[in-house]
Amino acid sequence: MDTAAFVIDNISSEITAYDEIAEKMRGQLADLPAEERAELEDAAVMLRRLRAGGDRALLPITVINRQEEKPR
Questions:
Q1: Of the residues 14, 19, 46, 63, which has the fewest C-beta atoms closer than 10 A?
Q2: What is the pLDDT of residues 56-67, one digit of tens each?
Q3: Chain centroid, CA 57 distance in Å
C-alpha cells in the first residue's frame, strides 16, 4: 500500500477509540435493570424500523431567501 503511515495510524486510533466507546456502552447497558434495558431495546428497534422505511413524510418547509439576488 502506498498510504502514508500517519494516515494508517490516525485511522487505527479512530477505530480503537470507537471500540473503547462501544465497550463502555455495552457495559452501561449491562448495568441497567432488566426493565430499563428492555425499554431501551424496544425503542432502538422502533427507531431502526422508522429509519429503514423509505416512505417518510417530509416536513413542509418554506425557504425564504433574505438576501437580494443581484441581476445577471
A1: 63
A2: 666 777 777 777
A3: 20
Structural contact between residues 32 and 43, judged by C-beta atoms closer than 8 angstroms:
no
Give tens-digit pLDDT for 4-23: 999 999 999 999 999 999 99
**Rounded CA separation 40/46 (Å):** 10
pLDDT given at position 1 = 66
Distances (CA, A) of 1 to 4, 9, 60: 9, 14, 49
- Gyration radius of the chain over CA positions: 23
Sign of the four-CA dihedral 9, 14, 17, 22: negative
> What are residue 3's phi and psi, to 5 degrees?
-95, 140
